[in-house]
Amino acid sequence: MFQADGPSFMSSFKKYAKDLSNSDIYKQLDKNYKNRVLTNDEGKPIAIPYATESYGIIYNKALLKKYFDASWSTVKSAEDINNFKALKTVADEIQAHKDEIGVKGAFSSAGLDSSSAFRYNFHLPSVPLYYEYADDGVDMTKVPSSVKGTYVKKMKNIFDLYIKDSTVEPSSLSGKTMDDSIAEFATGQAVFFQDGVWAYNQIKGQSVSDNDLGVFPIYIGAKGEENQGLNQVISNYWCVNSKVSEKDQQATEKFLSWLVTSDTALKAISQDMGLVSPFKGFDNEKYQVTNPLVGVNREYQKAGKTDVISVPTVSHQWEQNLGSAELNYAQGNGSWDDVVKVFTNDWASEYKLAYGE
Question: CA of 261: how far to CAs of 18, 21, 47, 160, 295, in Å?
């Protein structure tokens, strides 16, 4: 067996990956994730996702309650924060009254150094890409040769909020790290913090209790976003080598089945490793990950909210170029038009380099 990290990798290794249509590992996959497998040219599943993580705008319920209880607050409940307009109203008012709330800013610093930039050059653009793909009927597991950037101007809405209603001035973002941003949120200096379930281990045990952790979707002002859930990111897939003997292929499939059906493996994956895995066996309560941020994601899904699929980007170089354009914009050294150009023009050129088309 071997691991794939997405469509770009699989474009070079499809010929080595076995069709898993009739495998137990594919049958064990939760129905919500059947459409997240990677396929060969015939549309057959050849790469099975084995871990999924959600992300959004993590928030501090206790600090948000201070805002709701204030005489000057416009929005009075978390349930009413279900679109960008409402989120902006809340963030702007918190920023204007930050001393009264007891914070340094509405959002923790949107650090754009190498340790933190992935939140804005990979995670954030997944939202406008998702809406564009949904509009145009693009396969979310594939990388198209070009993108139109239909929703990039709306991405500016939330990015502006991140850098203006912040604990720090935009001019300092190039030196702000992931650790800085997490610390600001975990110690109660900020109400909001864009990140995912993996951040829990660095948040727990500090100023924010588990019961005070909530997550909002990343709203950008798209039509219908009131029904939006959290972003779901999948970066790793299992594949079976089709070039080995039939005996070895069968043994590998048996091992993969054991990983998602046996008590030993289910406990190890969910409890020891803390991974959220998209297979039926993990629905059992005793295999649920003890992470309140994971629990919030389940609540959105149970409520029928639509997952935002965190689609793969065309290349890591594209992400770096986008991050540089975002930083220049934040520091006043570039315009948002430069971000749009990278989003669209660089995508097309990077596709030719990565896929040779």
Answer: 21, 18, 18, 46, 22
Q: Determine the pLDDT at residue 123.
A: 96
CA 43 to chain centre: 25
Name residues whose C-beta falls within 8 Å of residue 303's C-beta, 6 or more positions apart in sequence. Answer: none
194 and 223 fall within a common domain: yes
**Do both 137 and 208 map to the same domain?**
yes
Assigned token pair, 44: 């057959």
How would you class 352 by CB atoms within 10 Å of its CB: exposed for 0-12, middle for 13-18, buried for 19 or more? Answer: exposed
Residue 103 has pLDDT above 90, yes or no: yes
Could you tell me where the beta strands, DSSP code E, fall in 183-331? 190-196, 213-216, 228-233, 237-239, 306-309
Three-class SS state of 113: coil
pLDDT digits (tens, 9 = 90+) for 215-268: 999 999 999 999 999 999 998 999 999 999 999 999 999 999 999 999 999 999
Reported confidence tier of residue 341, pLDDT bands at 50, 70, 90: very high
